[in-house]
Specification:
The chain has 243 residues and is α/β, with parallel strands linked by helices. The chain has 2 domains: 8-76, Ribosomal protein L30/S12 (60s Ribosomal Protein L30, Chain: A), CATH 3.30.1330.30; 84-242, Alpha/beta knot. Helices cover 35% and strands 20% of the residues. The chain has a 6-stranded parallel β-sheet, with helices on both faces. Strands 1-4-2-3 form a 4-stranded mixed β-sheet.
Length: 243
């Protein structure tokens, strides 16, 4: 089976123009060792749009793009990232009670896509990821999501700390899963603005994120297996939130 590739923009001027004109860019790859005014402008544009900038060897750029890349590649995406600060007021204006999912440290695009699929099915209003340590909404993630990533707002914020501040400023409670939690998901009040925080498999929710939580909960279990796949756990919680 032929592997799908995300669209690429190569060359110094084309990449700068793509960034200035808000083209859907997932990340930018820049050749290691290049310095000067171009690098400064590139860094500023990526920072202003919360786009990850990866410094890579020249050989990697050549492997990805056969032509003259001039030391820079922008990797495109089908998903147009949105701002959480714009999405939340719009939800309230529509008379909706926001239900958001925040992904903490989830970098596997398969889990990202599967979570997005369940989120869209169960009426979650937006997905929040971090530009620093979040999965890419690339073609593989879109395919795994069965197209759900094209139907639900994806907000890529500079950091999760910034996202949590925006959520709290808009009256959204932060709910996280924790094996030591005293409440089950059945005991949580889901009929209010909530953000469901999902952590990566193995590590779970980070310590900095735990300090921000308003409540924690656990999925009731009967068997002895330690934990569920994160996308399965997310789907169960999403369903409970609308039950």
């Amino acid at each position: 089976m032929k592997k799908e590739r995300d669209p690429m923009i190569a060359g110094r001027h084309p990449v700068i123009e793509a960034l200035k004109n808000n083209a859907p860019v997932d990340k930018v790859m820049f050749q290691k060792g290049i310095r000067g005014e171009y690098e400064k402008e590139l860094r500023w544009l990526c920072r202003s749009r919360n786009i990850p900038l990866q410094i890579v060897p020249k050989e990697k750029l050549g492997k990805l793009y056969g032509g003259n890349h001039q030391g820079v590649l922008a990797i495109g995406t089908e998903v147009v990232y949105q701002s959480l600060a714009d999405v939340l007021p719009h939800l309230y204006e529509q008379g909706l009670t926001p239900k958001i999912v925040v992904l903490d440290g989830i970098t596997d695009v398969r889990n990202f896509g599967a979570i997005a699929r369940s989120a869209e099915i169960f009426g979650i209003h937006a997905i929040v990821i971090s530009a620093k340590n979040g999965a890419s909404a690339n073609s593989f993630a879109v395919k795994t999501s069965a197209g759900a990533l094209l139907r639900i707002p994806v907000c890529r914020e500079k950091s999760l700390a910034q996202a949590f501040k925006i959520l709290k400023d808009h009256g959204v409670s932060l709910i996280g899963t924790d094996l030591a939690a005293k409440k089950t998901i059945r005991e949580i009040d889901w009929n209010r603005p909530v953000a469901i925080i999902m952590g990566a498999e193995g590590t779970g929710i980070g310590s900095a994120t735990k300090r921000e939580l308003d409540e924690t909960c656990i999925i009731p279990q009967v068997g002895q297996t330690d934990s569920l796949n994160v996308s399965v756990a997310a789907g169960i919680i999403f369903y409970e939130s609308i039950r």
